[in-house]
Amino acid sequence: MATSVATIGVPTAPAPNGSIPLRREIRDLQANYKDQWNLYLLGLTDLQQQPVTNLLSYYQVSGIHGEPYVPYSGVQGDTGAPFGGYCTHSSIIFTTWHRPYVALYEQALYASVGKIATRFTSQALRARTKQIRNPLYSFRFDGISVPRELSVDSYWARFPETKRAPDSRGNSRNSLVASVLANEAASLRSNVSLVLLSYHDFDAFSNNAWNTGQPVGRYGSLEDIHNEIHDKLGQGGHMASLDVSAFDPVFWLHHINVDRLWALWQAINPSAFAIGKVAAAREANFTIAAGEEITANSGLEPFYHAGLTNFWNSNEVKWTTPFGHAYPETQRWLFASDDAYQRSIRQAITTLYGANTVRTFFAPAEVQSTLQSTSATVPASAPIAPTTSMPEPTTSMPEPTTSMPEPTTSMPEPTTSMPEPTTSMPEPMTSMPEGFTNKRAGHGGSAPRTATPVAEPAKPRSFLQRLMARLMQLIGSAKRPVDIAVSKVAVIRTSSASHKSTPTNMLPSKSRQVEQTPSSRLGVPARYSHLFPNDTYFEWVVNLRTVKHALGQTFRVFVFLGDFDPEPAKWPTEPNVVGRFTVLGRAGDTPCDKCRTDQEEELVVSGSVPITKALLQDIVDKEALNSLNPEDVVPYLTRHLHWRVTLFDGSEQPRSEVPGLKVGIVSTRVSVDEDGVPVYSAEWQSYPEVTDGRPAGVDYTETMVLSDG
After folding, report:
1. If we measure between CA atoms, which residue out of 233, 471, 174, 514 comes closest to residue 366?
2. How far apart are CA 166 and CA 174, in angstroms?
3. Confidence label for 446 from pLDDT (cuts 50, 70 and 90)
4. Does 95 share its domain with 227?
C-alpha cells in the first residue's frame, strides 16, 4: 500500500486551439452528457466503497480537511507537537490550498470511473439498467458505524452517515435545506456579484480575516460566501462543521463552485494575484509556523507534485490549466483578445447573479413568465439509463435548487470510453437543525414594518416569491432543473424531464408591468426612472464582524428588514430575513492547530449582506420607501433593520453576548456601463446613526476607512 501520493488531477492535454475539458454545470451534465453522468454516479459509488486505508479512498481524501486529524501522504508538521491538521481557513491561501485539494478528489474519482468504464465493453451491457444508492445523498462511513477515529466525538458518533439538517431521529431534512436556501437567494446572489465585480485586491477577495483599518467596502469575501453555504447545507449536520464537512458529498460540489468563482475573479483581475506576508500567529497551522513568510511559492501541504519531493505552491495553481480543466465561462481560447474575454465574463456574472440590481428587479413580465423553477429531484437511489456517445466529461454545479426528496438511483450497466470527470456545484442546498420550521416565504409581502419584532409572523413579502424563479435561473442555464443530492436513489435519465412552469404568484405585480424606458441601461419603468438619474443608484450593504471562535462553535447572525417572528426556530425561513453572516467557529478543545492559535489571537472575521433588492421591493410593492437615496433609506433602516444571533443548534444567543460583534450600514454609488454591467464607486459611506446605541451596533466612536483606493 502506497504511503505517499502525488496530486496530479485528471490527465488531459490541450487541443491545438488550446481548449481543455470543462467542468460542466451539473444539470447540463445530467441532461446532455448521459454517459458521463452515469459514470460520475457509478464512479462516486465505487470511490465511497474503497477501503479506508487506501490513500485515494473517499474517506482518506475527505479526512484531509479535518477529522480524523492524522497526517496524510506522510506529510508531517514542522514541530514536535501532535498533528493539528492542514487548515487554511481565514487565511490568504484559503483559495489556493483548496484548488489542489479538489483536484486530488477529482483524481481519485477518475480512477474509479476508469475501472467502471472498462467493464462496459459491449452494447448489450450498456443497454441494461440497475438501481443503485444515490452516492450524492450521503456518505456512509462503513455502512454500520462511525470509524473509531470519529467515534470519540459524541455528537458525530450518532450518525453512521452524513446528514443535512438532521431531526431528533437523525433523519436528513433536505426539503428544509432547499427552503432555507431559496429564502435568502436574492441576498446571496447580490453578494456574489458584489465580491466578483467590485473587489480588486486578492487578500480582501479571498478570505474573511478582518484587520483594523479594513475599508468598509471590503467586509465581504469569497470565504464569507463559502461559509454561508456550509451553514445552510448543514444546519446541525456535517456541512455546518469544518471538522467533518468534507465527508458530505455535497462538499465537493460546493468547493468546485467556490473554485469556479475564484477562476472568474482571477480572469477579470489577472494582475491582482499577490501573496507575500509574514504569517501572523493566527495564520500558522501544523505545517506553517508563526513568523514564517507566506509567499506565492510557499508549499501547499500535503499536496505533492509528481515525484513526491516538492509541494504545489500558490503561484502554480492560480490558473486552473495545470489541473487540466476550465469552466464554461473561462474558455479563453474562444476569444480574440483578453479584453473580449474579460468583457464576456463580466457579462456572464451580471446575467447569472443579477449583478445589475435595478435591472434584475424590474425585469419585464414576459421574461419572468419564461423562467423555470430549479426544483426536481434525484432520489436516494437512481436508475442508470443506457446511452451511447461519450462526450466531454466533468461536472460543475449550478446554484441552489429548491425541493429535495429522499434518494435512490438507477444506472445502466457500464460503458466504454472515459470522459474527464469532475464536479462543481451550484450555490448549495440547505437544511436546519431540529426545531427549524419549513415555512416557505419570500422577502416580499405586505407585513407591516415596525421597529420591534412582533409575535405574529409577518406575511410573505410578494417580491421574492415572484422573483425567486427568475433568480434561480439567473444562476445558470436551467435546461433541466434537478435537486442533485437529495434523494436516496439516483436517477439517470435518457431524456430530459419536463420543466415546471413559473407559478402565477411568482410573476411581477401589475405595478411593475409597465412600459420600459428603452434607452435606460437599468431597464427602469418610466414611472420610476426619476429615482435613478443618469442610470445610477445606491447599493446598500450590512457589514458585520465578530471574533471567530468566541462562542466555540458555528453560529450565524440573521439580518431582518421589518417585523419577524420572535421564535428562533422560524428565522431561517422567516419572510423578512434578508440574509445571514455565518461564522464557522470551533470549540476550545479542537484538534485543529490553526484554530487554537486563532482562538488565542482572538481572530476577527467579517462578512456582508446586500439589502438593495429588499429595499427596492419596499419602494415598488409596498410604497413604504421613497427612494434608494440616503435621506430616505437611513431613517427607514433605523426603524426597520434588525439582527439576531443563533448557535449551531438553532438556539438564540443574546447579541450583546457575542464578543466583538459589530453590525453597521454602508452604501456606495453604482453606475452601469454600456454592457449593463455595474461599476461600483471606490468611495463608500457609513451610517452609524442607524445602529448607534443598539446591541452590537456600530456607533459614532468607530473610525472607518471609507475609500477602497
Report:
1. 514
2. 9
3. very low
4. no
Question: Domain total for the chain?
Answer: 2
pLDDT tier at 403, thresholds 50, 70, 90: very low
End-to-end CA distance of the chain: 54
For residue range 332-391, list pLDDT tens digits in order. Answer: 999 999 999 999 999 999 999 999 999 999 875 444 333 333 333 334 555 454 433 333
In a domain, 149, yes or no: no
Decide if 234 is inside a domain: yes
Mean pLDDT of 310-327: 96
Task: Report the distance separating Cα 198 and Cα 190, nearest Å.
Answer: 12
203 and 325 assigned to the same domain = no
Q: Which segments of 321-385 are extended strands (E)? A: 381-383
Q: Residues 78-84: contacts with CB within 8 Å, 24+ apart?
A: 78/286, 78/287, 78/288, 78/289, 79/286, 79/289, 81/286, 81/593, 82/591, 83/286, 83/591, 83/593, 84/285, 84/286, 84/591, 84/592, 84/593, 84/594, 84/596
In 504-663, where does DSSP find H-type helix?
Answer: 593-601, 612-620, 630-640
CB 273 within 8 A of CB 318: yes
CA distance 191 to 219: 11
Of how many residues is the chain composed?
709
Please tell me what DSSP assigns to residue 645: E
Phi, psi for residue 582 in degrees, rounded to 5: -100, 135
- The three cell numbers locating residue 489: 436513489
User: Do 188 and 133 share a structural domain?
Assistant: no
Conformational region of residue 101, where left means phi above 0, alpha means psi within -120 to 50, and beta covers everything else? alpha
Region 576-585 average pLDDT: 96
Count the alpha carbons within 13 Å of 246 in the hemisphere toward its beta carbon.
22
Place of cell 473580449: 340
Residue 536's DSSP bridge partners are 671
Kindly report the CATH number assigned to the domain that includes residue 52. Answer: 1.10.1280.10
Angle at 606 between CA 602 and CA 611, to 5 degrees: 155
- Alpha-carbon dihedral of residues 646, 647, 648, 649, nearest 10 degrees? -80
Instruction: Please provide the DSSP assignment of 404-417 as one string.
Output: -PPPBEEEES--SS
Helix, strand, coil share (%) of the chain residues, nearest 5: 35, 15, 50
User: Which DSSP letter does residue 289 get?
Assistant: -
Half-sphere exposure for 482 (CA within 13 Å, toward CB): 25
620: number of CA atoms within 13 Å, CB side? 28
Strand partners, 679: 671
Query: Interhelix angle for 462-474 vs 185-198, to 10°?
Result: 50
Tens of pLDDT, residues 122-179: 777 767 778 899 999 999 998 666 777 776 677 888 899 999 999 999 999 999 999 9
Residues 130, 220 within the same domain: no
Distance (Å, rounded) from C-alpha 137 to C-alpha 248?
A: 8
Range(s) of the domain holding residue 204: 175-242+356-374+523-708
Q: Which of 308, 350, 309, 314 is nearest to 329 (CA)?
A: 350
In DSSP terms, which residues pair with 583 in a beta bridge? 555
CA–CA separation, 686 vs 680, rounded Å? 16
pLDDT computed for residue 405 by the predictor: 38
Q: Please give the average per-residue pLDDT across 668-686, as a whole number.
A: 95
Three-state DSSP at 354 gives coil
- CA–CA gap between residue 452 and residue 391 (Å, rounded): 57
> 38-54, pLDDT tens digit by residue?
999 999 999 999 999 99
User: Are 196 and 391 spatial neighbours (Cβ–Cβ below 8 Å)?
Assistant: no
Could you give the CA distance from residue 696 to residue 545 in angstroms, rounded to a whole number? Answer: 10
